[in-house]
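Q: For a teaching session next week I want to show students how multiple molecules come together into a single three-dimensional assembly. I've collected the sequence lines for a complex. Could you give me the predicted structure tokens for the whole thing so I can convert them for display?
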Amino acid sequence: MSEAKVAVVLGVGPGLGGAIVRRFARENFAVAMMARSEDMLKPIQKEVEQFGGVALPVSADATNLNSVIDAFAQVKEKLGTPEVFIYNAGAFLMGGILELTPEQFENSWKINCLGAFLGVQQVLPAMVEHGSGTILLTGATASLRGGARFAALAVGKFGLRALAQSLAREFWPQGIHVAHIIIDGLINTPRVQAMAPEREVHTLLSTEAIAQTYWQLYLQEPTAWTLELDLRPALEKF
Amino acid sequence: MSEAKVAVVLGVGPGLGGAIVRRFARENFAVAMMARSEDMLKPIQKEVEQFGGVALPVSADATNLNSVIDAFAQVKEKLGTPEVFIYNAGAFLMGGILELTPEQFENSWKINCLGAFLGVQQVLPAMVEHGSGTILLTGATASLRGGARFAALAVGKFGLRALAQSLAREFWPQGIHVAHIIIDGLINTPRVQAMAPEREVHTLLSTEAIAQTYWQLYLQEPTAWTLELDLRPALEKF
Amino acid sequence: MSEAKVAVVLGVGPGLGGAIVRRFARENFAVAMMARSEDMLKPIQKEVEQFGGVALPVSADATNLNSVIDAFAQVKEKLGTPEVFIYNAGAFLMGGILELTPEQFENSWKINCLGAFLGVQQVLPAMVEHGSGTILLTGATASLRGGARFAALAVGKFGLRALAQSLAREFWPQGIHVAHIIIDGLINTPRVQAMAPEREVHTLLSTEAIAQTYWQLYLQEPTAWTLELDLRPALEKF
Amino acid sequence: MSEAKVAVVLGVGPGLGGAIVRRFARENFAVAMMARSEDMLKPIQKEVEQFGGVALPVSADATNLNSVIDAFAQVKEKLGTPEVFIYNAGAFLMGGILELTPEQFENSWKINCLGAFLGVQQVLPAMVEHGSGTILLTGATASLRGGARFAALAVGKFGLRALAQSLAREFWPQGIHVAHIIIDGLINTPRVQAMAPEREVHTLLSTEAIAQTYWQLYLQEPTAWTLELDLRPALEKF
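A: Of course. Below is the structure for the complete assembly, covering every listed component.
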């Protein structure tokens, strides 16, 4: 087992999740990266190991209790007790109210909100015992606005924001920093580049720049903690 | 089948739901009242029938798709196509994050949010066809604030508010008024009277006064619709 | 002196203010209408008198303390003590931060916010003594959003909203209903019709429909008061 | 004239303002510190000079246009063109609506909001020309909530928040980062220590911890800028 501090990022792909993994790994965290499939975690693992860091791929379905329990058990066994937990899973599903099926609506909530609840239940007992820890939750434009055809996303993201507030009010006094980051714009990921090839890079959120703010939130001292902040490109309309 | 206009209230008990049923029934609506058990609907039915109104008890589990489909099919058959739909179901579950089970957390979301989605899917197609209709969703203090030990409630109520916004932005332009009412205080119900016998009546929200605002929202003209308003007693701390 | 209940509307022109005057006058209020110039008040006075109502034109500059004091003294002398006070004054000034002069910025705040403070100071002492009263404040889209080139308006309207909240928290417990109405769209006034002749009527807020909601707020019972609601056309983008 | 980058902090005393001055001075900024009286600036100047930094005391009345113009002219002459502007002036005035005089109400707005407008007008032209710059505005609990007896403060702080939003939407696309920091709790200053001697240090916001977040906001890259964040102690009730 590593003697490094341990961070878990639930919801890792080639975009923001990977950048957060790299950021914390560079600061000598042993980082567990969780995704439904380990396939896309291998390149990140390789990259991290090249600069001497530790990034452990762990397969996990954020919407499935047993899968989440198993994944955190692996982390504990292989890396140690997490000091930082970042929930970055999410599903982006557009559709009018009459086009969505109840299953789609429910699954969207599970991946955008329930998974965070399942995750924090795994890490909080040890954090409470130690009187410290950091939990960062990734929000979106839809955390504050229920747009037409965005009900499935907004219901989940509003819910995640509610969870963040309840967590903060219950666990800040116990030394655990919970923060909610509202990412209000398109992130520069391979998927977005493919979807919107005309978008110039500086009009998209850089994953490294976002990860830097996650890192700064981790560093905040407990007399001046942030619960919520927004991030968007200078050139975003908002 | 009645020739009266039809309203459905999903989530009726001796408190606010019953008052809304009476309010719309007094205005000559044929009102379908839905609750898990029809038992507590009988006294309201009797009361409404005494003043010559129509109130049809329908058994429905708001969290169960087939039950919701069946319930609305009964309404359509017995009363006609609903012009008004009011979602007043909800569950009030307190508990710290580590005390709640995933099932409790999920069920709280289903009753506070998913049920509204299932309900609006039943009424919207006809409303869209007619180019008119009214959908009123009952919110709470927890719609805007995730308090400590209120995560289960807040996640559902934030979600319901997101749904209200998405519904409004999609369906207002089609002539359907969607509004979200934030009830920010204790309602004067038999349960609250039992729980807090020391509370004087005028410090609690009167169910009739709330129902009056629901009625006024129904009456609003489409050039000046309200999406959201709050209601609380003059003596509430807020 | 009239024995009718007295309402004061500060900020009356051919648009919303006039509609509010008519609405309350039809309910047998003696209504004092205040504007910088009495000229545009004459037609409203005539209209109200034709249906047997009372509408008293009073000249007042909302941004000038002595003018406001004088105006309310006239109301008291000629009509009696106001039970209802509606602040509907406002100035719509667009301009980038570097285009606005400090005088413009300050004057915009005075008309959009300070005037309401001066007005409520005139009516509150008697309201507190009687343990009742209603104060309605007209907000706008800019009450919630500081847009580019809207700083002058938003600073005033945000301030008015702050004032509404502080008033409500101080005076609701004393029996005085304070409410803030966010009018989120273009109102159908002669000025807007001239500015945007292509806009169809049903895409604009009807002044009568708005005034109806003001009236309903007046009627609310103290166990279920609204602090804030929004109004916009069904067809508004928001 | 210094070749260092120049920052201006308007509103400096022994509390947060001083900590911000020290923070930026340690990063090799030449910092102009503005306050009504230069007296309390001398100790900060001395402290900064002891570690080899530059902190220039400038007398300025934030509510007076000519005084603000003069002060910025001095900065330009003695230090150079500001790249960073921080508005930290404010007045904390409690009082019920009927206790405040119109002068007090107006002055509170001027110091909490107008002064920021006057300040940004001095620095923006050069920032726009260079296509870069940072403007940080200090908010408070009262930026989001108009409490009873807090009208004077809330009107100013709501206004400052509106100004921040309008500034961001106008000037972010021109490369100028505007951010608004909501300080939601008591700051550990000599004044607060005297007022509330029973408060333990870790229940108060540390000025150094706050200043660190201001510094991080300065460092943010333009693809992921924050408009607003909150800061409060872990032990704050909120």
